[in-house]
Amino acid sequence: MNTIALVSREAGYARRVLIRDPQNLFFTAGLPLLYLLIFATIFGDETAEIAGQPGEVDVATYMTASVIVIGVVSAAFQNLTVNLVQDREIGVLKRLRSAPVPTSVFLGGHVVNALVASALLAAGVALLGMAVYGVPFPDQRTAAAVVSVALGAVACASAAFPFTRLVRKGTAASPMAVAATLTLFFLSGNFFAGADMPRAMNLVADLFPVRHFLIAMTTAFNPNVAGAGFEWGHLGVLALWAVGGAVAGTRLFRWTPTGDH
Fold first, then answer.
1. CA angle 10–261–110, rounded 5-degree value
2. Between these two residues, 104 and 169, which has the higher pLDDT value?
3. Domain total for the chain?
């Protein structure tokens, strides 16, 4: 069996694990949709000036882009972190390590699953925003939106592997992953359209991929943006996180339970 087939098989296994856990599926896919319904319903008729964006943007449009980011981070980072740590601590990864499955295939399968889940989630959020809240279709910026989702998903999935090294117990995986993502959402301004964030918070947020992902998605959905809407600088940061996370993951990822060390 060639490498592509093996990666596809690993991705299928990871997808089945997600689908068979209703609670995990809700927090990964359902909760972002709920965020959009809440924020867009309350503030959807308002407009805001977004730093670095031309013109005023409907809050519903901003929140659609923001919730896509939240959903992708949840699927590609949060969900992956929890599953990897729990599988590690109950010995599943240790048994897999003894099987003739290359590390690159195992990691690649999870990244591919994160990409597929992120793409479906992003499409669902975008369709909900367009159908219910009148969010305009990106038109010529569609390619920018697709590239942003893909790079954002890979960057977040890659970051999950080294992050698991910080989590020493299976019971701590979900709280630590949620704490990390919520902190970055607040620092990056995902919940505050047009808010003037303190400089210190902006500097911290710029170190992590969520803020860059949010800016790229906002530009792709902003109808006032002329041209293709690619935020190459921010996409470059996501690409660096994708490569850096993958390199760090191959070096730091732990296959055996913490008690074995």
1. 15
2. 169
3. 1
